[in-house]
């Protein structure tokens, strides 16, 4: 029974960490994934459990013949529905052909997971708090029973 306060404390820590919400890098139409896109972090609103990144390749917004092609990067917090709709909207045009305008989008889940623009490369995200709690529970449960 002496271990019961430890278990209650661990559950409280999990609840508090869940309430704190996640954070995402945020920026709009930046030409590089540095500067604002790599330093500005925002706490997401309730229900925004994902970080959404969009990358566009094309000429400047005021289109003109011979305008230079460049990247435009945007990052923000998003809901799952936001992610699904945005990816569905852009993926048919996610061609990555240098002479054509294109747009791609990706979502990830976890604090500041959108630091890099990976565009579909596999990545593994782990929640250190979850790993810590699981390890502690594994160590404590044999003693409790």
TrEMBL record:
The lineage of its organism: Eukaryota, Metazoa, Ecdysozoa, Arthropoda, Crustacea. It comes from the Eukaryota. InterPro entries: Snake_toxin-like_sf. The keyword Cytoplasm does not apply. Keywords: Disulfide bond, Signal. Residues 1-21 form the signal peptide. This is Uncharacterized protein. Coiled coil: none annotated.
């Amino acid at each position: 029974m002496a271990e019961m306060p430890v278990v209650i404390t661990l559950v409280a820590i999990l609840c508090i960490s869940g309430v704190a919400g996640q954070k995402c890098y945020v920026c709009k139409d930046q030409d590089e994934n540095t500067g604002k896109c790599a330093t500005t972090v925002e706490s997401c609103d309730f229900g925004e459990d994902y970080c959404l990144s969009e990358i566009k390749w094309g000429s400047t917004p005021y289109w003109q013949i011979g305008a230079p092609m460049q990247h435009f990067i945007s990052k923000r917090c998003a809901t799952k529905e936001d992610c699904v709709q945005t990816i569905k909207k852009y993926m048919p045009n996610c061609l990555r052909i240098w002479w054509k305008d294109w747009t791609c989008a990706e979502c990830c889940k976890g604090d500041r997971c959108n630091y890099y623009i990976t565009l579909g490369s596999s990545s593994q995200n782990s929640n250190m708090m979850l790993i810590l709690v699981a390890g502690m529970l594994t160590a404590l449960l044999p003693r409790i029973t």
